[in-house]
Design a protein that fits this description.
Layout lengths: L10 E4 L4 H12 L4 E5 L7 E2 L3 E4 L2 H8 L3 E4 L3 H13 L4 E4 L6 H10 L4 E3 L5 E4 L3 E4 L8 E8 L2 H13 L4 E6 L10 H9 L6 E7 L4 H12 L5 E6 L23 H10 L4 E2 L5 H13 L1
Parallel strand pairs: 1-2, 1-5, 2-4, 5-6, 6-7, 10-11, 10-12, 12-13, 13-14
Antiparallel strand pairs: 3-4, 8-9, 8-11
Helix pairs in contact: 6-7, 7-8
């Protein structure tokens, strides 16, 4: 079992004929992701990659293919409309890769698209190893297994997953929630899904400075995940206050979003925090062996 994505999902690509959309469509297909169509207004009736149909609207794509998931490679000014269109067409899961969507646009999207799980924006997507890859992650680093992964950072996800795989720890599902201030899926949302997944034995949570998502996650772990080991890592712990770290949401404002508050929250929840990504596999193995005793 995988959370939110498996080999039976039917995926469309919004912006499939653009440079980024087509490039990553090719990579997703190489991972045997079940992509059933794409959407580019004005190019309906054409096809890409040996026969994947292109539609003018998401509604047409859903009607013809039965699509359940979408991945969005649409410029920032139009990405919110792409999410609305997916929601209105009945799509249940949307991974939005676009970076730079105006905050007010995303506030409205999150408030008015109930019933559709939104991953991102500004996220690397989701991978269920051996089943499907919806996003921009490098498929070759993943290995089927029983460790769930949730991260605000794309590149840190790749580094941590590579370390896990090399240590013989495969992954059940890897979720990149995105680094923008307003995102559709939080750590708590993903933790809740993993909590109910019988094929996830442990969870790695990769956070960053800024915001309060990690503190919220720690509280959820304390209250709802007493028996499923969680290991954390916090990126940007040495960043100066007031400096943004790569992501729009990774900024310390006054005493808000500090690494100290996040470390204290995880300590209170009994969650070990690795100092370096390379330490994570050993900490996971230690926690798993302790859970099985």
């Amino acid at each position: 079992m995988a959370i939110w994505l498996d080999k039976n999902s039917k995926i469309i690509v919004q912006g499939i004929t653009g440079r980024e959309g087509l490039f990553h469509t090719q990579r997703m297909l190489a991972y045997r992701t079940p992509i059933v169509g794409g959407v580019t207004p004005g190019k309906g009736g054409s096809s890409v990659e040996g026969g994947i149909p292109v539609f003018n609207t998401v509604h047409d794509a859903v009607a013809k293919t039965g699509a359940t998931h979408t991945i969005i490679f649409v410029p920032p000014a139009f990405a919110a409309d792409a999410l609305y269109e997916a929601h209105d067409a009945g799509i249940g899961f949307a991974a939005c890769i676009t970076e730079g969507i105006p905050v007010h646009d995303m506030l409205r999207v999150v408030a008015t698209t109930a019933g559709m799980r939104i991953l991102g924006p500004n996220c690397p997507g989701i991978v269920s190893p051996g089943k499907a890859l919806v996003g921009i992650m490098p498929g070759h680093i993943f290995k089927e297994g029983r460790v769930g992964m949730i991260s605000r950072s794309g590149t840190l996800t790749y580094e941590i997953v590579d370390n896990l795989t090399k240590a013989g720890l495969g992954q059940s599902t890897c979720v990149g929630i995105g680094g923008d201030p307003i995102i559709g899926t939080t750590f708590v949302d993903a933790l809740r899904a993993f909590a109910n997944d019988p094929e996830t034995d442990a969870i790695v949570l990769c956070g960053e400075i800024g915001g309060s998502d990690e503190e919220d996650a720690a509280a959820f772990i304390h209250d709802h995940l007493p028996d499923k080991p969680v290991v954390a890592f916090i990126g940007g712990r040495s960043a100066p206050r007031g400096k943004r770290l790569g992501h729009a949401g990774a900024i310390i404002s006054g005493n808000f979003g500090t690494p100290e508050s996040k470390l204290a929250a995880f300590a209170a929840a009994g969650v070990p925090v690795a100092d370096r990504p390379s330490q994570i596999p050993d900490v996971v193995k230690s926690r798993l062996s302790g859970a099985k005793r």
